[in-house]
Amino acid sequence: MNFNKIKRTIKEGLHDMSIIWANEMKMTVKDEAVLIFFLLASTIYPLLYSWIYNNEVVREVPVAVVDYSHSAESREYIRLCNASPDVNVAYHCTSLTEAKDLVGRQQVKGVLFFPSDFDTNIHRGEQAHVSVFCDMSLMLTYKAIFQTAQAVSSQMGSKIQLSRSTGFTDRDDEVTVRPLEFDEVPIFNPVGGYGSFLLPAVLILVIQQTLLLGIGLAAGTNRENNRYGELIPIDQHYRGLFRIVGGKALCYFMIYALVAAYLTMILPTLFHFPLLGSLRSLIGLMVPYILACIFFGITLSCLVRYRENVMLLVVVTSLPFLFLSGISWPSEGIPAFWKGISWLLPSTFGVKGYIAVNSMGATLQDISHEYFALWAQSLIYFFTSCLFYKVQIDRAIKQRDADEDTSGIIQETL
What we know:
- The chain is mostly helical and 414 residues long.
- The longest helix has 46 residues, at 368-413.
- Helix 2 packs parallel to helix 10 (241-270).
- Helix 3 links the parallel strand 1 and strand 2.
- The model is unreliable at 227-237 (pLDDT under 50).
- It has 15 helices and four strands.
- It folds into two domains: 12-53 and 193-410, no CATH class; 61-177, 3-Layer(aba) Sandwich (abc type-2 transporter like fold).
- The chain has a four-stranded mixed β-sheet with strand order 2-1-3-4, sandwiched between helices.
- The two termini are 52 Å apart.
């Protein structure tokens, strides 16, 4: 008897969820704004972003040269800098004032200054100096200029050491130039590219933000249309909160399973970004992340009164959410208050987990902290979604009953 009752309850629950899922899917397809954010924004925007940063590093950064030395050594230094892929010697100036003016007009991003005693100090066996002035408004250009200057200085310094070496063999010269041998091996981002560093975090954040936008727009639309119980007519389908939230979540999950596959597998493959994780680890991470984002979005949508509100909310919070993820600033340096706020966001754990899996080849065991945190968020936001819906539906039922009583009194009076 009890088994048959449980079986009937499950059957009714699946039936109600399928109706709610169908209604939600129809609403999503008919609402152009929701469809734009769910499909177009989540696919085209990351595509353009990846295309813009596909070069990974900046090349041929223009610099100005102020050479008071006019020597063979300073000309060799300038030639080596200009021959590097990162720097382009665009101007030769007669003074620092002229070079500073070029930097102010953004015609160059840095200045190389050679004092008049540059070659004299070299021939005396003293230390020579080259001043490097960089525009720090963009760290990528600063990195290109400064690292090129360091590499050329090291190369010329080695050459000068060899010319004064008293060694008899090539091995003696090698030890003189490099007494301490080391190998520089960049890991997880072998090209040192900006795209490989930033794009994984952006792709994961896009999933969360577009979900928040779409779910919030749908909720705002239904509030403006004055429907009882948000998206579902309470007379037909209000038989359980789990069925309502589950049916809505199933609709969003089906859509974003495809979107997540595109963002996390197809897009990195197209633009040759690191893709070291296994398919099992990637799917295992994306399932709780998408669910956490969906229930987080449903919870927030209960606070949305008008469609425009959610757009302002998501646009304003996108950059703070990116910063709180720990990708642009180490999470160890984030104040405790804001770190606590970041733990409420699925993107914080989603970004860290995806970077570990995608760029470092981590497994689910390696990201167990992020993995279980996302599942915990999914459960917590699922119950908060149910709680908010209960409050709204109870309020809608009271309002409906009050309207019916008022209508009955008016009819009796007439």
